[in-house]
Design brief:
Pfam families: Astacin. Keywords: Hydrolase, Metal-binding, Metalloprotease, Protease, Zinc. InterPro entries: MetalloPept_cat_dom_sf (IPR024079), Peptidase_M12A (IPR001506), Peptidase_Metallo (IPR006026). This protein is of the alpha/beta class and 200 residues long. The chain has one domain: 3-Layer(aba) Sandwich (Collagenase (Catalytic Domain)). 22% of the residues lie in helices and 24% in strands. It contains four helices and nine strands, in the order ββαββαβαββββα. It has helices at residues 21-36, 61-65, 89-100, 152-163, and strands at residues 6-12, 15-20, 44-46, 49-51, 77-83, 108-112, 119-124, 129-132, 138-144. Strands 3-4-8-9-7-5-6 form a seven-stranded mixed beta sheet, with helices on one face. A two-stranded antiparallel ribbon has the order 1-2. Strand 1 and strand 2 (15-20) form a beta hairpin. Helix 3 (89-100) packs across helix 4.
């Protein structure tokens, strides 16, 4: 059998990594199965995006499986939420302000959870700031840790993930549209690597 030629996988700071396609699949699957046993304990994360077990491995997993919150006949998108009771009144005010900020500029309306809701955002102080991308079904965690995540812009950022928005700077087609000036990115800042998901 003829070996596949190397392909360009990722243009990272200062280097271009060339790797064989078979090795890409092997490494991706090894990573996927390595994390499989911990999925029921905590979500796998890439930066501040949580990934469910068995999720499509696509550059935009949300659009590949249709996870947008539905629009009602009045043209609005209603997203139920529940705020865990371990937040102080000041912290709840920050979260509420973030939730309400969407209604003046969009069709998004966050509303408190009600009995009978089958899908809602469960806003909790877990380990860090993260969210799943798009509607997941049931009560989906949006983690806003009391240590470092309770800022208006951070609340909005994680809510945007829950609404279905990924990081634009990690899209697989990013380099077709923008140029990243790697020399201007501080060490440790992320995420700027292009997402390339492969089905295992």
């Amino acid at each position: 059998m003829k070996a596949l030629p190397p392909i360009l996988l990722l243009n990272s700071p200062g280097t271009a990594s060339k790797i064989r396609f078979g090795l890409i699949i092997q490494k991706t699957c090894e990573k996927h199965f390595k994390f499989k046993s911990v999925f029921n304990r905590k979500p796998m994360k890439r930066s501040d995006i949580a990934i469910k077990p068995g999720a499509d491995r696509n550059a935009d997993p949300c659009t590949s499986r249709g996870c947008m919150w539905g629009k009602w006949t009045d043209g609005k998108v209603y997203v139920p939420y529940y705020i865990a009771n371990h937040y102080s009144s000041r912290e709840i005010a920050i979260i509420t302000r973030g939730l309400e900020s969407f209604s003046s500029i969009s069709c998004i309306r966050f509303r408190p959870y009600q009995d009978g809701d089958h899908e809602w955002l469960s806003i909790e102080s877990r380990n860090g700031c993260y969210s799943y991308v798009g509607r997941q079904g049931g009560g989906q965690t949006v983690s806003l840790s009391r240590q470092g995540c309770l800022y208006h812009s951070t609340v909005q950022h994680e809510l945007l993930h829950a609404l279905g928005f990924n990081h634009e700077q990690t899209r697989s087609d990013r380099d077709n549209h923008i140029r990243v000036y790697w020399e201007n990115i501080l060490d440790g800042q992320s995420p700027f690597s292009v997402l390339i998901w492969i089905l295992c």
